[in-house]
Amino acid sequence: MKAMLERAVVSVLIVVPYLACAGGSSNGGATPPTGYNYFAYVSNAGTNSISAYTIDPTTGALTEIAGSPFAAGQAVCFVAAEPTGKFAYASNPGSNNISAYSINSTTGALTTISGSPFTAGTEPVSVAIDPTGKFAYVPNAGSNNVSAYTIDSTTGALTEIAGSPFSTGEGPAFVTIDPTGKFAYVANESQAYKVNIFAYSINSATGALTEIAGSPFAAGTSPVSIAVDPTGKFAYVANYGSATVSAFAIDSTTGILTEIAGSPFAAASNPLSVAVDPTGKFAYVVNLTVPSVSAYSIDSTTGVLTTIANYGLASGTLPYSVTTIQIKQ
User: Fold this and answer.
1) For 106-150, what is each residue's pLDDT tens digit?
2) Among 87, 261, 273, 291, whose CB has the most other CB atoms within 10 angstroms?
3) What architecture is domain 219-329?
């Protein structure tokens, strides 16, 4: 198994399915919006299941959903939802497949989609859905490639795209799609593979991946996570092996990555996950060995990171993932 899979990975997904709210003001009020339900999903690698909860929009309290936990594949690793919140997908590196579910928009319960699980490559680690909800991408750490699928908008079923799987670097652990849906970026975590961010253009009609000129792009040692800011201008990579965060400017036409002056930026020991907040003003990095979250401000012009603080975790060990969300008010 690759290094990422040798750790007990837990993924948390928060889903806000669209129900009845047809409008609304900008995010800033204290009153939760009406017309939405809020759900959280947690992958349990040790029990091959997904726990599901409703989220109280006022207090944030979690209540387990009837029927939870829901069965998943072996060593379930990562959960992702398509943009409307109708369907969820989970990578199962132990059984080399992808579990697919429909999400009940009222209760949050998961129902296995017909045909699930869908075949992936060897040791699929994560799942990314493009912003249109048409395509899904899965990096396979054991077979060094990326599986690509079309998503049936009615059933949620996955159909592998012609040409899939697409070749990438050694030990691909994480894939992200830029906000425009034009480009895909894959972080390859192998300690031995130092040039390890592969970049692809996405065919908007077919979902097929074409490697971008100049790819792969150099990052630090063993990059395991990559995030693109909401404007699509910058990409940030958590380098597990070198305790740094690499920062890149994204060419909006070609998708080419150019390292930002001052990059890589220091993190704490073994940074494992990176996320950019929905406003694009801040970045957060989870550090595994010294349980903490590093926080940075982002220069909106240059993309440079400036450390705000390093927050020690009050309880728990081995933090694996960080995510940020914005709830429409």
Assistant:
1) 898 999 999 999 999 999 988 999 999 999 999 999 999 999 999
2) 87
3) 7 Propeller (2.130)
